[in-house]
Amino acid sequence: MSEKRRRICPFCEATCGLVLTIDGRKVTRVEGDADDPFSEGFICPKGAALAQFDADPDRLRTPLIREGTTWREAAWDEAFEHIDANLNRIVEEHDKHALAAYVGNPVVHNLSLLLYNSVLLRALGSPNIFSATSVDQLPKQLVCAALFGTGLSVPIPDIDRTDYLLILGANPVESNGSLLTAPNIGDRLKRLRKRGGKLIVIDPRRTKTARLADAHHFIRPGTDAHFLFALVHTIFEEDLANLGRLEEHVMQLDQVRELCAPFTPEAAAGRCGIPAETIRQIARDLATSPTAAVYGRIGTCTQAFGTLASWLVEVIHVLTGNLDREGGALFTLPAHGPGNTKGKPGSGRGLRMGRRSSRVRNHPEIFGEFPVACLAEEIDTPGERQVRALITVAGNPVLSTPNSDRLDRALASLEFMVSVDVYLNETTRHANVILPGVSSLEGSHYDPAFEAFAIHNYARYSPALFEIPEGQMDEWEILLRLTGILSGAGPQSDITFFDDLVISTLIQRETSAETSCIHGRESDEILEALKPRRGPDRMLDFMLRTGPYGEGFGANPDGLTLDKVAAAPTGIDLGPLKPRLPEVLRTVSGKVELAPDIVTEDIDRLVEDLTADDNGLLLIGRRDLSSNNSWMHNLPTLVAGHARCTLQIHPDTAAACGVADGEEAAVTSRVGTVCAPVTVTDAIAPGVVSLPHGWGHDHDDLRLSVAREHAGVNSNILTDEDLMDVPSGNAVLCGIPVTVGPA
Ligand SMILES: Nc1nc2c(c(=O)[nH]1)N[C@H]1C(S)=C(S)[C@@H](COP(=O)(O)OP(=O)(O)OC[C@H]3O[C@@H](n4cnc5c(=O)[nH]c(N)nc54)[C@H](O)[C@@H]3O)O[C@H]1N2
Ligand SMILES: Nc1nc2c(c(=O)[nH]1)N[C@H]1C(S)=C(S)[C@@H](COP(=O)(O)OP(=O)(O)OC[C@H]3O[C@@H](n4cnc5c(=O)[nH]c(N)nc54)[C@H](O)[C@@H]3O)O[C@H]1N2
Ligand code: SF4
Ligand SMILES: [Mo]
């Protein structure tokens, strides 16, 4: 007897609603949920492959302990005892500085990991915390924290209502959007144009998104900040700035006016390759359209001027009056109540960084982390406080971070490594113990992170579809067992004790906060009201009940609880985004601090770059609808058909380099060389080559039988750990100098 069950797709930020047909423990069909008002029935090949992931025989289900070059299945208790003995030995011989952690992207897509990861990291007791954030959105979050007070206060382009959308360095038709949860985005962009809106795309490739646009312009990789500064220059020069109601909420406008002086459209054009007259026209259109928004993502973040480019996006929103305006870019008000809904509305502590620095490169901490481009050197540079043990949680840094050959060697040299992961892959092969997560269908699902970046306020929950199989462990429990080990409670620590401690701490924080709806209440009473839930569901229920729409444990009886959200088949619609200024701000001044030092101090470097003499070949990446970073290549339908890991190159550039379509080319950077088959196409700018990341599954010792047949090459063998966006330390992954020739 088969039945249909609804489920939110866990794979990407679009969070599509799916309908799964299940027969016993088996998923027999996956479809888009036509009744989901948010995703409108949309599904992509990855969502459709959810059944394959669930059933993948290579997906790990038992802890593995490595003995030399072979792996042995182990009982959970033995695995934790092994970890306890080794981590404690290392901490005794050195101290907690010898420990490090790397947290990967799927943590944000997994409720258990998202809510309990910070508990583990606190218990680590070491400053050596790294994550995929610093090969991704860190510059944007840094800018938002500096301007608006928290790293989660990211203005979301209001694509369903805007009249003019400028997209740079993002290809949402292929990636389905990031820091922009807008399922079925291709149709949304088509509707934007149908209602008379304009779409402009700036990208070194003519992408699927560019093909939907009114205009597409090639840009020299890494020069978006020049282009955007020239837009700002034009807006001031032509007296087009019009802040409207923002005027009273914004400071340091005059500083921005002065800083943009060198960036005339002519000067920028020479560097970015977009004609000065085009730059002027885009500036005028942005300023004079009834509403407009700018969306910059991976291409504008993972580049040499990622912070400046991300900053200029927000400066343009401010100058054109589009920040916090319907049709412009607005702040969400998500149900789970993140930092910019807590504390005193309108002001706060603002951005704090640099409380510590990394040992080798002396890079300041941001949001409690060091840049992952510094991870290998922390392991392979001898000395006091050298990293000797690593915990990875849902991360594959060997394929996703710069100079991965060096990191691969560094991981092999560790004294001990633990991975919480679902595959034996390029990174986890270096672990001494792998602790397997469950299938995502065996846990409940909610997207606190992506609801905070959505174009509409929504609350959607999926209960676990299947029970956790005998002999497996939910990941929050795995993380609490590791927390026990790191806090000295031993390998057998009582999960319930730690879980109660975590929730009690959260409750106490709320009951003692003056602005909370449960201020002054007894903690025990709140704890009692959360029964019988435990783990992530209890935490989520608490967050929803104390969030901006929450029931407040009786204070607002019509408000949200997890029960209410769970009872709504396609979630609860909390309405379109609305203006939130000045309430959303958590800056010290209580204003939008438009020209913070951390940003403006980097402008000299950009001015210098304005006249840089750079004609060499530059490497960028790209994404494919059927792939997801490094870890979905073991699902047969996603690797079927044409090879995806090819080197795209313009015909003129190919001729100059002596390579031809279908042939192998050698690509060389300062740090490495890879060989990949060539795709010649005029959809990429001359002087630029593109290779997707996340491939290179060609080691003998991986348990990825399908991926190994479609190995591809690892583009991060070419990316360079010395190239960073200076203010944030984010890795440069777009615009790597390379040479190309026949293999
Ligand atoms: N050159 C280049 N490099 C890039 C990028 C680029 O554009 N160009 N993009 C960067 C970006 S944006 C990102 S986010 C990073 C991603 O970098 P990572 O997060 O390091 O890599 P992923 O490929 O997402 O690998 C995720 C890991 O989590 C495991 N996993 C998957 N699901 C689960 C689960 O439910 N539980 C557990 N425990 N494990 C799970 C997978 O097996 C895999 O080992 O890559 C970055 N690297
Ligand atoms: N199918 C699929 N979906 C995904 C992922 C995936 O791997 N596959 N990964 C997920 C993750 S972790 C993330 S962070 C998001 C990322 O989502 P997006 O930001 O949309 O990522 P990309 O598709 O890589 O698009 C980046 C674009 O920037 C362009 N570009 C490169 N360099 C520059 C530059 O210097 N300037 C400009 N203007 N453009 C440049 C590239 O050509 C590319 O088209 O996607 C998520 N969704
Ligand atoms: S776009 Fe695809 S992978 Fe992303 S949520 Fe929707 S179905 Fe899942
Ligand atoms: Mo990402």
Q: Can you offer a commentary on this structure?
A:
The protein has 743 residues and is an alpha/beta fold. It contains 27 helices and 30 strands. It has a seven-stranded mixed β-sheet with strand order 5-4-19-18-17-6-7, with helices on one face. Strand 6, helix 4 (111-124) and strand 7 form a beta-alpha-beta unit. Helix 9 runs antiparallel to helix 11. The longest helix has 18 residues, at 76-93. The termini are far apart. The model has no long low-confidence stretch (mean pLDDT 97). Bound molecules: ligand MGD (2 copies), iron/sulfur cluster (SF4) and molybdenum atom (MO). One ligand MGD is lined by residues 104-106, 110, 132, 135-136, 298, 302, 394-397, 400, 420-423, 425, 427, 437, 440, 475, 621, 629-631, 693-694, 715-716, 719, 733.
Task: Describe the secondary structure blueprint for this structure.
Blueprint: E1 2-8, E2 17-23, E3 26-32, H1 45-48, H2 50-55, E4 64-67, E5 70-73, H3 76-93, E6 99-103, H4 111-124, E7 129-131, H5 138-148, E8 156-157, E9 164-168, H6 172-175, H7 185-194, E10 198-202, H8 208-211, E11 215-217, H9 224-237, E12 250-251, H10 253-259, H11 265-272, H12 276-288, E13 293-296, H13 298-301, H14 306-319, E14 329-330, E15 353-357, E16 364-366, H15 375-380, E17 389-393, H16 397-400, H17 404-412, E18 416-421, E19 433-436, E20 445-446, H18 448-451, E21 456-459, E22 461-462, H19 475-486, H20 495-511, H21 523-529, H22 535-546, H23 562-567, E23 572-576, E24 592-593, H24 597-600, H25 603-610, E25 617-620, H26 636-639, E26 647-649, H27 651-657, E27 664-668, E28 673-680, E29 688-690, E30 736-742
Parallel strand pairs: 6-7, 6-17, 9-10, 9-13, 10-11, 12-24, 17-18, 18-19, 25-29, 26-28
Antiparallel strand pairs: 1-2, 2-3, 4-5, 4-19, 8-14, 15-16, 20-22, 21-23, 25-30, 26-29, 27-28, 27-30
Helix pairs in contact: 3-19, 4-19, 5-14, 9-11, 9-12, 9-14, 11-12, 20-21, 20-22
The chain binds ligand MGD (2 copies), iron/sulfur cluster and molybdenum atom.
One ligand MGD binds next to helix 16 and strand 18.
